[in-house]
């Protein structure tokens, strides 16, 4: 059933002098604000996580500890697609600045919380703003920099990711030990002020006038569905058993709301997430790859430090440093790939290489044992990081190149959402597999009663390094083997999931990247835009009129 297209609210016609492409200097100035904002978004969770024991000690309410994280995660995931759509409808700059302000207000309020209930509520507000930070960064970069030139800048974002992963726990530990846990929230304020000032002064985007009605029903259904999925992955196997009525009820709710969402989106004039985007083969494929990358990355970053601390005896103090080999591989390859894409305009080979290398890294890590040296495990982490380095920015690049400029925000938010949901599922599934294998191995080596007694009556899969040292030597040895077996199971299953990404990457098509001031070539016809129609690429091949329209779209993309 076809429906009339909504008024997309095209930007007002700008004076000719404003239609020239941005200079490299202008773009670099804006990138300062975007990079600081991205750092702000990524550092928060890592810094706060380090301070959580101290926070609970002062505020009490340890039974609600998980909600400090869950409320933030839920708000972030649920708001991500909404921020993207609002940016498309009402202008990316204003919406982006709004998300930064909400994040900073939530940070300030979290810092003055007097009890756990207040902290949970303020963390939810902070998460609401955080949902727009990453989406805003990616969609604004997509509007400022043509896909062909984006490789010049993607190394910055890879570097920020590595810096945040390594430096976050270090900063959190320093603040907790030498200042006060409240500064884990207050530190966001000066960073956010810098980001706000830079974006306000340097970012110039055309004003958008759009009279389209917001898809409130679609937003409600999508938010409910995402919230249910996030709760399933957060609670499943932890708060509630996977077969409990709570998890089964959430599963039914997620299925019902997401089916209802798909039904509604096909009938509204301005859908919250246009399903037509998924008619584009490349967009669908890179969404699948992004899901798998999130699945692997978040699962790995949770369980690798556990192995290094318990089996290899690494210190937990500088936990961020334990992931440095993986971040190093990711950073170097991301820089090389970015420059290569900018130089050649070709990208199809990189998802294929990346997914294969990522799968190889997971297979290598599945061989971890009690005898594996730190050097060997570091080398295998480099391989895994290199695989992800081929994919982290390329997936976003291809997603943005597959849609019209007016859908840049929703494309960016969708790509981000798939990676986030993939990460949630990865941590949940890896956690269930790991816990099951550790418990099984402990029972095999010690017997069920001895294993339970050795772990002081608790879950043998949840021993901390400190608690482990207090146990008898035979129990420690059994636990070391149990963790190694758990890692084998986790990464073997991770490799099996990564094969899905390999299969998806093979079918990605080489659609020419839009370049600064260069209209798409005829080879793009029918593949460059959502559903193969409506964007610059879709207009190619329809005669002189179509070529003029394609060129106009490209000039607009370059100008803003």
From TrEMBL:
UniProt biased composition (Low complexity):
549-560
Domain Major facilitator superfamily (MFS) profile residues, every copy: 30-513
Q: Which UniProt keywords apply?
A: Cell membrane, Membrane, Transmembrane, Transmembrane helix, Transport
Give positions of region: Disordered.
Answer: 1-21, 514-560
Q: Which residues cross the membrane?
A: 29-52, 64-83, 95-112, 124-145, 157-175, 181-203, 215-235, 247-264, 285-307, 319-337, 349-369, 375-398, 410-434, 490-508
Q: Which Gene3D superfamilies match?
A: MFS general substrate transporter like domains, Multidrug resistance protein D
Q: What is its main location?
A: membrane
- Transferase among the record's keywords? no
- Give the bilayer topology: Multi-pass membrane protein
Q: Which Pfam families match?
A: MFS_1
Show the ranges annotated as biased composition (Gly residues): 526-535
Q: Which locations, inside or outside the cell, does it occupy?
A: Cell membrane
Q: Which NCBIfam families match?
A: efflux_EmrB
Protein name (record): MDR family MFS transporter
Per the UniProt entry, what species is this protein from, by scientific name? Kitasatospora putterlickiae
